[in-house]
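Hi,

I'm pasting everything inline rather than attaching a file, because the server keeps stripping attachments. The sequence lines come first, and each chain or strand is labelled.
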Amino acid sequence: MNTSKFNYTKQGYFKKADLFIYALLILAVVVSLFFLPKGKGAYAEVYSDGKLYGVYDLNTDIELKIEGEEGYNIVVIADKKVWVKEANCPGQDCVRHKAISKVNQTIVCTPNRLIVIIKGKGDIDAYTGGGL
Amino acid sequence: MNYKKVTLTLIIAVLLTSILLGCTQSKDYYGFVFGTSYSIRLQERSANKTATGIKKVMDTLEGKTSTVIAQSDIARINSTGTNTPITVAEDTFFLLKQAKELYDKTSGAYNPAVFPLVKLWHFDPESYTGVASSIPTPQQIEQTLTYCDFNYFLLDEQALTVTKTIAQAQLDLGGIVKGYATDIACSLIKKNGFITIGGSIGAKGDTKRIGIQAPRISSAPFGVFLLKDGEFVSSSGDYERYYEYQSIRYHHIIAQNGYPSGHNLENPAISVTVVANSGLLTDGLSTAFMILPLAEIMGLAAEYNCKGVVIFADKSFATFGNFEFELTDNEYFQV
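And the predicted assembly:
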């Protein structure tokens, strides 16, 4: 390839029409950014043994039995809420934990290495404190 | 446009998209450490590298301070008899020194030597089940309480050793190590993000909106506040690890009298949130503030330049250190 042809200044590479296209492209990229991640409603991500087990829409009721290396948890999604209905862990903190429904709320079962987190569009970055 | 221009245009478009996406998209990392879960959210280039670095630091720290891992500094101290100096890692020693200061300043409300009582009440990770068919007798509590003095541990800074003066004394740094880990994690975050370990959060970069969970079942969080760059927050409460026996709630924060904090009090603190510029401090103080009376909390808040809120059993709350937040559950009311 003859690289000298990429000498922009001499050959007036950026013509008015080109600039218009660039501007359009930039606009398209910016606009798409606003639409891409925020189109979805809230959804629950379930992690088991450190790996993503599945992603579930909060609008679809479902009951999941997640078998990890250490034990099982039964996670329920209903009424746009998520809770752990049953587990074979000692402590039962995950079962006692209240149902979660807001973005970035979590339910954790440390013995069975299960994490449920709600994702989507929300105005809280993280939660502190428990709340059983 | 010739094909070169088209190519260049496409390259610019792809670059722009990736730069803009790189600016806006954050990456999350989840896992378990210190007997609890952590989450790291990063918004920066080479986020994977940062997260890997943080995980490595946390794992190393756990390897030194765990009460469960037999080779850890703390487990070795706990299993050793009297008058045998145990050499520990520098950061273990640093934590012990910080623990000593907090122990002294909070009149033993934060007490890393309370572990024998935690075990007696079955709140240690190895015996906790969330249910109880009995509780310790007053005699057992009184006896075990005599082992729970941090002054039974002699710290030698020159030699980096810890020597026990009674065999039954045992340590657990779980009350500050998670907060300390958020301190280190935030120093490793280059641009923007936060880390949550158990009830402790550390923020770097943009201001974060943090929800404080209500201490009891509730449709809304208790409140929302802003956590700024370099700030840390920890919450402690009677809801973290507890069981009920004969309709009385017993939880894992053991006070100086040997009983769970607030036991037999008419209106005990059930949740404490502390914000400061050190995670180690917020972690330790949130535990101590569950136990201490409000007047002492106010004094320590001024001394340590920290702020926060105490929630009581009757749904009243009191702030300290000019803590500003938005109350989102109107069932709660200011004292």
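Residues 16-35 of chain A form the longest helix (20 residues).

If the labels don't parse on your end, tell me and I'll reformat.
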